[in-house]
Write a structure and sequence with these properties.
2 copies of one chain form a homodimer. Chain A has 2 domains: about 130 residues, translation initiation factor eif-2b, domain 1 (Four Helix Bundle (Hemerythrin (Met), subunit A), Up-down Bundle); about 200 residues, Rossmann fold (3-Layer(aba) Sandwich). Helix content of chain A is about 40%, strand content about 20%. The longest helix of chain A is centred in the middle third of the chain and has 30 residues.
Chain lengths: ~325, ~325
Amino acid sequence: MIVGKKWFTAVWPEGRTVKMIDQTLLPHKFRIASFKNHHETAKAIKEMVVRGAGSIGAAAAFGAAQAVMEGKATKGFEELLNTRPTARDLFWAIERMEKAVKGKDGKEAKLAAVKEAREISGSYVENGRLIGEHGSVLLHDGARVLTHCNAGWLAMQDWGSALAPIYWAKREGNRVFVFADETRPRLQGARLTAWELANEGIEHKIIADNAAGYYMQKGDVDICIVGADRVARNGDIANKIGTYEKAVLAKENGIPFYVAAPLSTIDLKCKKGADIKIEERDEREVLFIEGKRIANEKSHALNPGFDVTPARYIKGIITEEGIIRPKPDEIKGVFDA
Amino acid sequence: MIVGKKWFTAVWPEGRTVKMIDQTLLPHKFRIASFKNHHETAKAIKEMVVRGAGSIGAAAAFGAAQAVMEGKATKGFEELLNTRPTARDLFWAIERMEKAVKGKDGKEAKLAAVKEAREISGSYVENGRLIGEHGSVLLHDGARVLTHCNAGWLAMQDWGSALAPIYWAKREGNRVFVFADETRPRLQGARLTAWELANEGIEHKIIADNAAGYYMQKGDVDICIVGADRVARNGDIANKIGTYEKAVLAKENGIPFYVAAPLSTIDLKCKKGADIKIEERDEREVLFIEGKRIANEKSHALNPGFDVTPARYIKGIITEEGIIRPKPDEIKGVFDA
């Protein structure tokens, strides 16, 4: 997407360096961070300089290419795999990188790695655009969308997943209004989604996560669209903590609830949502905001990073191949086609 | 409740001054604020130095007594009524104060006002204790309770509403664990509930509001108890924004959802939840935390302070007269008895 007058993706390579928009500093500062080797790139993924399933996938691919160039492919791949446990795209990207360099050595391996990483990154750009095109049919002129966390271009290199249909609708001349859940504890909605929407000139309001049900109950929400970190074979999905709450509320209020995700987020080896490993994150994300303690001094917090939304709450999954229902046969079918 | 070695209520009078624990400074500072006349007391209610239905009621009563002592009863009562639109107790307390001084003048009015205000405050202390006693039957040893916002003693002078059963259970020797929703935007859960629970030695963890559904889905929550700002005749209730979300999630997961409130919170003139006026608060409560902007600079927020939970999600209302079902005949019956 265009920031200022320049086109950016969330992550990109420059020679042996991996560059990222530092998402920990947004929206207050738009700053490019540089990571000179695969250790640094792995650390950046872990510390969420880059986040969002697709952008994590792309970052892992570029990090893997760095590892190959450094002659440390095997160990480097493992280090990258151990950064975040929930996002399917991380594993998918590393698997692709492993396959690309398998049986190759020296310069041949390096060239193959660089090429594959660029292709992985490019696939997110293209798939985001296609998700936007397919998903935009759900958005009539004046549609009011509720989204959770950030599943925009920062999370998937360019167009995004959940926000791509909104960006596409806008380019087709349709007005869309977005309720952006602020998304505690890390506030990706208030910080990143709001920043993206403002940058794209899309009308929106930030709400506390607690207020989503209120607006659904009032009849002010036409549709919910969220991203996913992993989609199981049965259509259950893992996504940012709180997604399950919004899905239950949408069902209760008769509001269609859609998940937008590229096929790379679907994990056919994962039977059901309960099998997805949920990342437990540091309690300080809940207890502090920007270094300042907001909670009672003597209290502790629990901080699960994701939750699982069972397939029965999901009306459809918007993929680059079209919108499918969260059913095992349709999910498998889209890979067989 | 005891803080340090001294017994406190949320609000109390000292001569013509109204004193309050400054709840905007908790949990970081425990400081007593003083308000010399009814203007100052009204401003303190509006700015949430004191909050919570019962404590607002008590503060309004003491403020009304100040107005009578200043010879400005009529105007003063009106000023106090205009501070917060949702809490039933504010209106209930002022109505009682009006009745108490009606037809009286001079010293007689002043004495009646002071006496009535003390009785109103005392009724919250006693009713909180009774709510605790009645509600504690719902809490077996080891019970895991989820609560939202703060409906403890800070919100109702002494025992509280939603937290009173937990305090009572503890005194009876039962261990209770509490999930405290942090309760954005003002974080009353992370600040006040966590502070109260720590002060009383009750095991608890703070969670982002988004994580409540996750723990309910996991089977980690035995019961939800929340307070209320107003209860309608049909059993619908208004409470802190996000309460509706938790109620829907509790129902979906087969978890009993209870509302704790004194009869003074029940508004028989209010037919149903949809008739309750919901306070729209300043967007800066969402966009800033402790003076620091957390959200995107160019974005705006919506900030409803309360939501309505329909009676069908509520298993029971814990009152000083016992636990009643949220049905018109039971609600009316408890007043007729």
